[in-house]
Amino acid sequence: MGPASYDVVISGAGPAGCAAAITLADYAPDLRICLIDAGHGGARKAGDTVPPSIAPILRHLGLWPTFLSSGHKPAHRSVSAWGALHIATNEYFFLGSDTAWQLDRRVFEQSLTEAAAARLSRFETGVIAGCRQTGGCLTVTLKSGAVLTARYAIDATGRAAALSRMMTASPVIFDRLVGCLAFAPDSQTERNELLIESFEAGWWYTACLPRGRRVVACMTDAEQIRPLGLRSAEGFRARLANTRYVEAVTNGDGPLDGPHVLAANSRLTEAQPGLPLLPAGDAAFATDPICGQGIVNALRGGVYAAYAVADWLLREDPKGLDRYRAWVHASFASYQMVLRDFYAVEARWPDHPFWRRRQTARLSPAPERIRQ
Ligand SMILES: Cc1cc2nc3c(=O)[nH]c(=O)nc-3n(C[C@H](O)[C@H](O)[C@H](O)COP(=O)(O)OP(=O)(O)OC[C@H]3O[C@@H](n4cnc5c(N)ncnc54)[C@H](O)[C@@H]3O)c2cc1C
User: Fold this and answer.
1) Of 33, 139, 177, 237, whose CB is crowded by the most CB atoms within 10 A?
2) pLDDT of residue 45
């Protein structure tokens, strides 16, 4: 028996992969689609606050009623000490928008995966270990040894950009931001807003999560983890104790799950023209969590990539693919402008490398680019 063959293989069942799968199944039901995921189920992911703009995308995907009944917590404002000692408040109501949400990330991922799996030819748990082009198709190999072929693939493997890397498209890395995250039981469930506080080597955030948990995170550059002592729970607690606001809403002495270190830098992966492969979500472009747009961008990118691939496979119409690539570039360019303006507001530590890097990037025509 030869390898199983599909019209589209989607690698990665995070927000981008699931949005692509649901869109393809609804828009092009005759295509044979396989969604593959390594199976971490949201357990190792960060990303808990989503902006009001998630609502229209989930409505479009038919997932809004499920979302509303899944126990995610509405949040009506965020607060920050950024650029000054005092706290400033962002009420979503006064910004003319609706409610933001504190996600139960595991439940969110599960509902996305279930909705996608119910519509697809195949959902497979497995790690993609290899990909090569044979003729006009891609041959994808899983770690288990299983082999399948696809007329087109969508790389939705997040920051790993696993398929794109296997096909020699390495992401361009723009900075070295990492998040050191810890989870703790929440003693202040009434404080359900996102709280951000800058310090000389980066910034902290904390938010209360569903099911009585709280996330506390220190965001800094990778080379600062060791001098700041952020690898150990003791070092993390010691740094947390130096914060003015974040420590006050966390139970500093209570049990701590973490710190876990996650990459959080800005990166862009070019889709290779002529190759039947599109990156979507973080695999296409990953953003600094200060913007809080990662999940919305991933859902949106998954939907757009799916339409583009379907139009190509059904009608050999390349316009969608061109539009998709242009959308990725335009989105990343406008994100970079917002990011530089955002970091420019914090002018209290101009000599610390963390802030200097982000503020001088504003003055140069091209941001600092680090090739991996
Ligand atoms: C510290 C931090 C805080 C963040 N906070 C927020 C926030 O508050 N709000 C927000 O909107 N965003 C936030 N984000 C960003 C957000 O988590 C991502 O943008 C979002 O998860 C991207 O979705 P995705 O579907 O592209 O990728 P992912 O969610 O990363 O999913 C990728 C999937 O691919 C699978 N996979 C990977 N490699 C393979 C392989 N070889 N084979 C098979 N499967 C594979 C994984 O199992 C995973 O399920 C944060 C990120 C960080 C690092």
Assistant:
1) 33
2) 75
